[in-house]
Amino acid sequence: MSAERIVVGMSGGVDSSVAALLLKRAGHEVVGLFMKNWEDDDDDEYCSTRQDLVDVAAVADLLGIELDVVNFAAAYRERVFAEFLREYAAGRTPNPDVLCNAEIKFKAFLDHALALGASRIATGHYAGVRARDGRFELLKGADPAKDQSYFLHRLTQAQLARVAFPLERLRKTEVRRIAHEAGLPVAEKKDSTGICFIGERPFRAFLNRYLPHRRGPMKTPAGRVVGEHVGLAFHTIGQRSGLGIGGTKGGDGAPWYVAGKDLAANALIVVQGHDHPLLSRRALVAADLAWVAGAPPPTGATYGGKIRYRQADAACRIAAQDAERCEIEFEEPQWAVAPGQSVVLYSGEVCLGGGVIQ
Question: Which of 44, 107, 120, 149 is 20 to 30 A removed from 101 (C-alpha atoms)?
Fold first, then answer.
């Protein structure tokens, strides 16, 4: 493989740091790029941006690579955060990581890197890319516990042609070992959790500042009022904690779960028991489709489907589809199918793409 100029998205974590290290070892001209995607109330209590930048600079210095810092906050707010709020206001549960990858990390970042003269970009994602028959395939990462192809399923052929995933064949334990042996200062840094613009802060308190919340009834499917919700946007299908419903008269003592939302009545539909039939669905409709190959996979075949990250592939098929929507049927009922989340299809280790659950 001939040497290339590759810009690596570096977050200050061990994964992206090792990605940069491996590319440098392979003889490439590596440039580190730190993206600042959020500026509102960017304080050290919940947001680790300042410390992350210090860590990135330390790693770049150790590796002897150039470091570029770029502010994508305006693009992030317009392309990701505004859509995030729109979805929540409509009663759905969006996945901003999916949108961030499609709109920022592999669009704004890619454009910026190409302007810097790079031939490709790289990230510390646990996923793979493979050229096959003139097309590019998105692959699962080798570490099943860390595979992030679910979040990358909206990447296009043009994006995959310009992307490298140096960690695709590594497990997390190996990445930490490589970091230790190389003396990287982030070798033991714990993984970041949560949505990047929220950080570790309480989710409901964060949403409170951006979305109006209208209290309303919590009802059983039969219409009996059993409590009051603080706003439909603050609840998701399958939610158990935080409902504040104790035992009710005539109830069986089983825990309560969110089973649906009646937007017209501003009512939250709740049921008792994890196995309540309203919490499971065999079929779903997905829209806003994105297929990695540029065309939808054929109907009739059996695929592996995920309706949430870290779920095992569940056997399913595409029952019907057109350019806008597709209906997916699962062999076994799926628990807590949440509108706004992504359903992603796989053929073995190949991620085919997916869409947004309606």
Answer: 44
Q: Which residue in 316, 326, 322 sits closest to 287, CA to CA?
A: 326
Share of the chain above pLDDT 90, in %: 79
User: Active-site residue among 100, 316, 326, 351?
Assistant: 100
pTM above 0.90, yes or no: yes
Q: Specify the number of domains making up the chain.
A: 3
pLDDT digits (tens, 9 = 90+) for 330-356: 999 999 999 999 999 999 999 999 999
Q: From the candidates 47, 196, 326, 351, which is the catalytic residue?
A: 196
Tokens (6 digits) for 268: 């939250």
Active site residue 196: yes
Give the pair of three-digit tokens for residue 326. Answer: 């597709």
* The two three-digit tokens of residue 208, written as one number: 């409170």
Among the candidates 132, 158, 181, a domain finishes at 181
HEC string for 309-324: CCCCCEEEEEEEECCC
Tell me, yes or no, whether 110 lies in a domain: yes
Domain hosting 353: range is 279-357
User: What does the alpha-carbon distance between residue 203 and residue 208 come to, in Å, rounded to a whole number?
Assistant: 9
